[in-house]
């Protein structure tokens, strides 16, 4: 059963929105999820219409089933201070390093270190237990970097473990990789039914599998309804006079002049439907569960976010959300 859900996708596919909807969907009655942001964009705060997230876990929503969604924006500098305190007991010495600029220097010149801290913090939330030895969070959802960077981002701890052969750094990196490569983790890829996002999804799945990282599902976002296919449009082409008469009967005096523009739009729609079917076929070849979320006509507002979470909840395997 997956407990860490890593959500990635090509830029513009709405991965942050999908991650937020998934966190809501997984928060069943009496359950608690943590939504983690690692890119510092405060996209989660904007979606939930709340103030910027601090470096602390804060409740930001309640699901339709009464579960709770907490959120955390991970700050690499503060995560490094936590790390120094946890493994080296530096305490005030670590804070002194921050004042000297050493912490910012370390996280800036060593992006690999930054990724270690970000993934480590998320995995710590997955493993954390309360005083009664119960999991603090039933699920953790990470709004992760884009598809092109996700394999390197998740695999950086393996590189660190190879570099640091012994000691707390080595042990921590190995512990994180044990979570990331276990059935506890699932990497979900968000895409649109367009050629470039689908191709990047296909490539991303191949890279993740090659690195031994567990791929969960493909989530197709912003799906538009299909109204006409090419056969119907072709039939309409041969019935222009009937269409013109129908428009006139509907009270449109210039109905005849509207026939050509209407058919042009119908042809464009039918072509899009055909292209989307071809992209669906490419996604089906991956052998992964595919979930679809409809396009929100009014944009992504809080009500729309709950709508998307309901769509995901209806499609998600129950054992995944348990």
Plain-language structure description:
The protein has an 8-stranded mixed sheet, sandwiched between helices. With 322 residues, the protein is of the alpha/beta class. The chain is elongated and about 80 Å long. Helix 9 links the parallel strand 6 and strand 7.
Can you lay out the helices and strands and say which pair or pack?
Blueprint: E1 4-9, H1 15-26, E2 32-37, H2 43-47, E3 58-62, E4 68-73, H3 76-88, H4 92-99, H5 102-109, H6 111-127, E5 139-143, H7 147-163, H8 167-180, E6 185-191, H9 195-210, E7 215-223, H10 230-237, H11 240-249, H12 255-284, E8 290-294, H13 302-315, H14 318-321
Parallel strand pairs: 1-5, 1-6, 2-4, 2-5, 6-7, 7-8
Antiparallel strand pairs: 3-4
Helix pairs in contact: 1-13, 3-6, 5-6, 6-7, 6-8, 7-8, 7-9, 9-12, 10-12, 11-12
Concise account of the structure shown:
GO terms for molecular function: ATP binding; ATP hydrolysis activity. This protein has 322 residues and is α/β, with parallel strands linked by helices.
Q: Indicate the overall shape.
A: elongated
The biggest sheet amounts to: 8 strands, mixed
Alpha carbon gap, first and last residue: 8 Å
Task: Tell me roughly what share of residues is in helical segments.
Answer: 40-55%
Structural class: alpha/beta
Return the average pLDDT rounded to an integer.
83
The CATH architecture of the largest domain is 3-Layer(aba) Sandwich
Whole-number total of structural domains: 2
According to CATH, the homologous superfamily of the largest domain is P-loop containing nucleotide triphosphate hydrolases
Quaternary state, please? single chain
Low-confidence segments, given as residue ranges, are 87-94, 96-109
- The CATH topology of the largest domain is what? Rossmann fold
List how many beta strands DSSP finds.
Answer: 8
Q: Tally the helices: what do you get?
A: 14
- Beta-strand content: 15-25%
Enumerate the strands of the largest sheet in spatial order, edge to edge or round the barrel.
Answer: 3-4-2-5-1-6-7-8
Name of the CATH class of the largest domain? Alpha Beta
| Element-level helix/strand string | EHEHEEHHHHEHHEHEHHHEHH
What's the Cα radius of gyration? Answer: 24 Å
């Amino acid at each position: 059963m997956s407990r860490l859900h890593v959500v990635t996708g090509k830029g513009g596919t709405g991965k942050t929105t999908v991650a937020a909807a998934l966190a809501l969907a997984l928060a069943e009655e009496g359950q608690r999820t943590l939504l983690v942001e690692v890119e510092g964009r405060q996209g989660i705060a904007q979606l939930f219409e709340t103030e910027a997230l601090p470096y602390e876990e804060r409740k930001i929503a309640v699901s339709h089933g009464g579960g709770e969604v907490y959120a955390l924006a991970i700050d690499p500098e503060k995560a490094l201070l936590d790390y120094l305190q946890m493994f080296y007991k530096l305490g005030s010495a670590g804070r002194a390093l921050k004042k000297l600029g050493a912490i910012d220097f370390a996280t800036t010149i060593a992006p690999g270190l930054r990724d270690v801290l970000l993934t480590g913090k998320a995995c710590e939330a997955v493993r954390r237990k309360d005083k009664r030895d119960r999991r603090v969070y039933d699920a953790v959802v990470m709004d992760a970097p884009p598809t092109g960077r996700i394999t390197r981002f998740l695999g950086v701890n393996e590189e660190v473990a190879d570099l640091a052969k012994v000691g707390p750094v080595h042990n921590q990196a190995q512990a994180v990789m044990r979570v990331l490569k276990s059935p506890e983790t699932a990497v979900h890829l968000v895409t649109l039914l367009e050629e470039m996002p689908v191709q990047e999804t296909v490539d991303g799945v191949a890279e993740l599998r090659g690195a031994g990282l567990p791929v969960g599902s493909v989530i197709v976002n912003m799906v538009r309804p299909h109204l006409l296919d090419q056969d119907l449009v072709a039939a309409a082409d041969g019935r222009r006079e009937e269409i013109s008469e129908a428009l006139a009967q509907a009270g449109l005096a210039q109905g005849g002049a509207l026939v050509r523009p209407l058919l042009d739009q119908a042809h464009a729609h039918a072509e899009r439907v055909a292209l989307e079917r071809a992209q669906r076929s490419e996604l089906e070849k991956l052998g992964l569960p595919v979930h679809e979320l409809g396009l929100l006509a009014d944009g992504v507002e809080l009500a729309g976010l709950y709508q998307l979470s309901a769509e995901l909840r209806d499609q998600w395997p129950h054992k995944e959300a348990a």
